[in-house]
Structure formats: C-alpha cells, structure tokens
Amino acid sequence: AFQLRQMQSYGNDAISGRVAKLWPELAEQSREKAERIAQLRKLLSSETLAKADTSNGRLLFSRSCANCHTLFGEGKKIAPDLTGAQRINLNYLLENIADPSATVSKNFQMRIVLLEDGRVLNGVVLAQNEKTFTVQTATEQVVIQRDEVDLMQDSKLSMMPENLLNVLKDDQIRDLIGYLMSPTQVPLP
Predict the structure, then answer these.
(1) Quick one: which of 1, 46, 76, 133 could link to 103 by a disulfide (CB 3.0–4.6 Å)?
(2) Contact 121, 113 (CB under 8 A)
(3) What H or E segment, with its residue span, contains residue 40?
(4) Mapping DSSP to helix (H, G, I), strand (E, B) and coil, where does residue 177 land?
(5) What 8-state DSSP symbol labels residue 1?
(6) What would you report as the CA-atom Rg of the chain, rounded to the nearest whole angstrom?
C-alpha cells in the first residue's frame, strides 16, 4: 500500500490512473492516518529502534497481535502470518498497522453475513461447501448453514482494528515494532 500510494502521489495522471485501475481496493488514505504514520516514522528512527526491548515487544505482541496473527509459529491464524511479511520494512509495517483497511487480501477480506434469524456476523470465510460456510469472527469460528443466510456481502474494512498503536506509550511502540522487525524469535521477559 505504501509503495502504491507513493506512485499515486508522484503527480503523474497516467501512473495514478493505472494504479487505480489495477488496485481499485486501494483506499485513499486520510490526512489523519498519513499524519500518524509520519509521526510514527519520526519516532521510530533507526537509533530509537536499536534501543528496542524486543523481549518486551514479544510480550506486547502475544497480548494483542497474537490473538489474530502468527509470528515465528506462535499465535492464531485468523489474519496473515507475519513471519514471511516485509517486516524489516518500517514503512510496510506502519502502513499496515496504522491503516489496516488500505489493502486487504481476498483470503482475509471481511464479510458481513445477515442471517434469517436477524443475527449479523462480521468475519472471514475460512471454508465453504454446498451446505455450509465456516466464518471466523473476532472471537469464534461459526459454522452456518447456507439456507440460514439471508444476505452476505464483502466489506472493504479489515478485521484488524484501527488505532491499535494509540493505546501504547512511545517506548512500547518502539519495543513492539522492534520485535516485529527482528529476524528471529526472542525470549519472553
């Protein structure tokens, strides 16, 4: 998302048009999100990240991020496995954490499911067959009979909440990002 936005901001209408055509799911980034990412980028200089307590970062990851993501084989598989992601790229991390709905992979696209009994579920469809859907919500897996579904539609929003870093202090953000960028697993504190 970061690189695509850079291409769009270049000022070339032909390039911007191609990006919009090839990646229509790329949402315009709000000024507020862009400013927050710039603040975080300034906070997380290479000197600051060198001081990160990655063990504390792992603890923070396990308390929050691991409820959905896997890193180094630990955590849940509701959201993408971060082990192979572009974790050494600070811009990649900040874009995806501060603006999680900017680009959402089809495999993790949230769906809104309205059931005949009036319930509404928001989640990712993990599996489906002729009779059922298995939907992973933020808290549980639910198997739904197809004939119980009144309406199902894709959402442009990620299941990952926005503003996750806003509840952390600067040193905690440093530690978490330092851990996310670490090449190997570190011990817990």
Answers:
(1) 1
(2) yes
(3) helix 31-43
(4) helix
(5) -
(6) 19
* Three-state secondary structure call for residue 110: coil
pTM equals 0.77
Query: What are the pLDDT tens digits along the chain (189 aa)?
Result: 545 655 655 567 787 777 777 766 555 556 788 889 999 999 999 999 999 999 999 999 999 999 989 999 999 888 889 998 789 999 989 988 998 887 777 788 888 999 999 889 888 898 999 999 999 988 889 999 999 999 999 887 788 888 899 999 999 999 999 999 999 999 999
| Residue 10, number of CB atoms within 10 A of its CB | 11
At how many degrees (to 10) do helices 54-63 and 170-181 cross? Answer: 90
Measured distance CA(67)–CA(61) in Å, rounded: 9
